[in-house]
Design brief:
By secondary structure, the chain is α/β, with parallel strands linked by helices. Helix content is about 30%, strand content about 20%. The longest helix is centred in the last third of the chain and has 19 residues.
Length: about 280
């Protein structure tokens, strides 16, 4: 099978992002009853679903609540993402949130400690994707308020069906929408956190995504920060007391995250670049 993927490169604030369609040409050996071999070529155009705005219908209730929060305003800092962001609000020990050992998935005590005094809106939804974030921003979550800073991490759930370049383009689309909706805000774009084991292919995918989206850093409005290494042991594994399932932070994991971003976020709220020169 011969697979040729062609991606059109476009520019976003001086950064390289990938275009929305990939042309796939597949050459497939056909079955034959005689000695002569034949081939069949099938050409198809693949749409990059990571950039097509679409929200899981099961998330609509959460979205509507976030829109009301947006309309109320009084937001200085926006957290946007999937379950890893969502569970900053997880107090642990309740039926409405997942539970686990070592404070698994429990971020609220850490949030309260580091960010409780700030005007933060957490628009993370467990299970969401780049296309879900794009849809949500375009349908009310990106209007009605003017945050000074935004912390975005999204894309790990896209690894189930999208390639690394497609996911990177989805992240770029979200960043572009945030820039459109909040032109005066500074965006702290986090590299997707590592997950699973060092030899799992998803690690390679995430590394590739992060390499591409790091180019979205323009030094003015968008600032890329990869803190993934802070969650890893020396051998590249993820300790159970940091991410009990190899994906979602424990309370200790959220503490590591908070320590890494507290100063950048504080600088953003003052109107400064998140990373000191």
């Amino acid at each position: 099978m011969k697979l040729i993927l062609r991606y059109r490169l476009s520019s976003f604030f001086g950064a390289v992002v990938l275009a929305g369609f990939a042309l796939c040409t597949i050459t497939r050996a056909a079955d034959s009853t005689n000695s002569a071999s034949t081939t069949q070529t099938i050409s198809e155009t693949r749409t990059n679903t990571a950039i097509v705005p679409k929200l899981n219908s099961g998330f609509m209730g959460r979205h509507k609540a976030f829109v009301e929060t947006a309309k109320a305003g009084n937001i200085d800092l926006l957290f946007m993402g999937d379950s890893i962001t969502d569970w900053w609000r997880n107090p642990g020990g309740t039926n409405s949130f997942p539970r686990g050992t070592n404070g698994a998935y429990t971020g609220k005590p850490v949030f309260d400690k580091y960010f409780g005094s700030m005007k933060v809106a957490n628009f993370g939804i467990a299970g969401d994707t780049t296309q879900g974030v794009l849809w949500r921003l375009q349908n009310g979550e990106g209007q009605g308020y003017k945050p000074k800073g935004i912390m975005l991490m999204i894309g790990t759930n896209n690894t189930r069906r999208n390639s690394a370049p497609e996911i990177a383009e989805g992240v770029a689309a979200d960043v572009a929408e945030l820039r459109k909706d909040f032109p005066d805000a500074k965006i702290l774009l986090l590299g997707i956190f590592p997950r699973s084991t060092p030899t799992n292919s998803v690690r390679t995918t995430i590394t590739e995504i992060n390499t591409i989206i790091s180019k979205l850093d323009d030094g003015k409005h968008v600032f890329y920060l990869d803190i993934g290494g802070k969650f890893l042991a020396a051998d590249g594994t993820i300790p159970k007391d940091v991410m009990s399932d190899g994906l979602h932070p424990t309370t200790k994991g959220y503490e590591i995250w908070a320590e890494a971003v507290k100063d950048p976020l504080a600088r953003m709220l003052k109107g400064d670049a998140p990373m000191a020169n």
